[in-house]
Design a protein that fits this description.
This protein has 222 residues and is α+β, with helices and mostly antiparallel strands. 40% of the residues lie in helices and 13% in strands. The chain has a single domain, classed as NADH Oxidase (3-Layer(aba) Sandwich). Strands 1-2-4-3 form a 4-stranded antiparallel β-sheet, sandwiched between helices. It binds flavin mononucleotide. Flavin mononucleotide binds next to strand 3.
């Protein structure tokens, strides 16, 4: 698989089989992703990988919290600007339409949308997950470094026949994640990532992208 194919075949997969992901594969992917560039090569990512009984325990605890209606943890960073302006607002609602429309959930049924989000905290059935932290002191360029790192991980997973779903949803339960991982206090959980083999019996569709001219400007004197 070349990089074009890895980039185009990567999608946020939300249904996995329970086929285990070999530890050696995860080590190969993560040691290669370590070649991700970062400003001054500071490599600001801190990754924890969870499989087996510890992941099952995390899913159990998160599921119990959800079932008991326990509110989300105090956010440690803002996931979106409070008032998302155009064109981002329209793109976000188009995503909601596509995602929840495909599940047959109408726009106004917020409760059903919330229910549909619940599988996040079961890692969509995935047998492996990673949790990526960044130091509280880090600024926007370092958060961007972490994003590049995570995309590198996701592309490498494709070359291994694996799929993934990056999940800020886990940041909403960061205290539960911390119970299992015991990260140092100076770290903030950016996101989780479910990892595994796609359950191809569950139908899925590709989320569209803005046309190139909306996001790219060529200035070439032509
Ligand atoms: C940082 C980040 C956090 C995300 N968090 C979630 C999440 O919590 N739950 C989820 O189902 N998808 C999550 N996604 C997936 C996005 O919804 C998805 O990438 C986007 O809609 C584009 O779809 P695609 O990745 O399938 O092409 C996240 C993606 C990113 C990059």
């Amino acid at each position: 698989m070349d990089v074009y194919e890895a980039a185009t075949s990567r999608r946020a997969v939300r249904a996995f089989t329970d086929r285990p992901v070999p530890r050696l594969t995860l080590e190969r992917v993560l040691s290669t992703a370590a070649w991700t560039p970062s400003g001054s090569n500071i490599q600001p990512w801190h990754t924890y990988v969870l499989t087996g009984a510890p992941l099952a325990e995390l899913k159990k605890r998160a599921g119990e919290r959800l079932a008991s209606g326990d509110p989300w943890d105090e956010p440690e960073y803002e996931q979106y600007p409070p008032a998302l302006k155009s064109p981002y607002r329209e793109r976000r609602s188009a995503f909601g339409e596509q995602r929840y429309g495909a599940l047959g959930i109408p726009r106004e049924d917020l409760e059903a949308r919330q229910r549909a989000a619940a599988p996040n905290w079961d890692c969509f059935g995935a047998p492996a997950a990673l949790f990526c932290y960044i130091d509280r002191d880090m600024g926007r360029p370092q958060w961007s470094d972490v994003g590049m790192y995570l995309q590198t991980v996701m592309l490498l997973l494709r070359t291994e026949g694996l799929h993934s779903c990056p999940q800020m949803a886990w940041a909403k339960f960061h205290k539960t994640v911390a119970e299992l991982l015991s990260p140092p206090d100076e770290l903030v959980l950016f996101c989780g990532m479910s990892i595994g083999f796609e359950d191809v019996t569950v139908s899925d569709h590709r989320i569209a992208r803005a046309p190139l001219a909306e996001t790219v400007t060529f200035i070439d004197g032509r």
